[in-house]
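Hello forum,

I keep getting stuck at the same step: I have a sequence, I want structure tokens, and every attempt I make locally crashes halfway through. Rather than fight my setup again tonight, could one of you with a working pipeline run this one for me? It's a single chain of 184 residues.
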Amino acid sequence: MSKLIIFALAAILCIHEIYGINIISKAQWGGKAPKSRTNANKNLGYVVIHHSAGAYCSTMDACKQQMRNMQAYHMNDLGWPDIGYNFGIGADGNIYEGRGFGLVGAHATNWNSKALGIMFIGNYNNNKPTAAQVSKAKELIAHGVSQGYLSSNYVLYGHRQVGSTECPGTNLYNEIKKWPKWKA
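Reply #2:
Ran it on my machine without issues. Output:
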């Protein structure tokens, strides 16, 4: 019994490790189970960077709440089977599981089946991405490549490049244009 209690406490106190990197699981942020899932192909050729255009979060509790808010909006208001993004990244420096690797997202029309969708929580017309967010996004992408979810020759786009939107916000867009795989 005492080993079980110690294990449970360790699980509560530690950030859950998924995919070999630290990611806050959907269960940890209080997400609902998806209504359905569609498997994605391996070696996706694209990464699309988004912003939520909603509230900025700099604490784990606030970021968890924003993930729940987005999932509720996507599922209840838009009628989608789950949150649209594969992952979210908060200004608290954590990666939050959305649909995760290996599943088709709902983040960029005509790109969902061929791109991983990574969303920075907040409005990046107003806010600037933190160094921790940038580092975590790059870590997540590198892991996706190492595990075969993304092609090593992937191309990085901001959402505005593949759809009619100002997403991912000017400040975040200016940041990702500096990344090696970004393409004009």
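The longest helix spans residues 60-77. If your local run keeps crashing, start a new thread with the error log.
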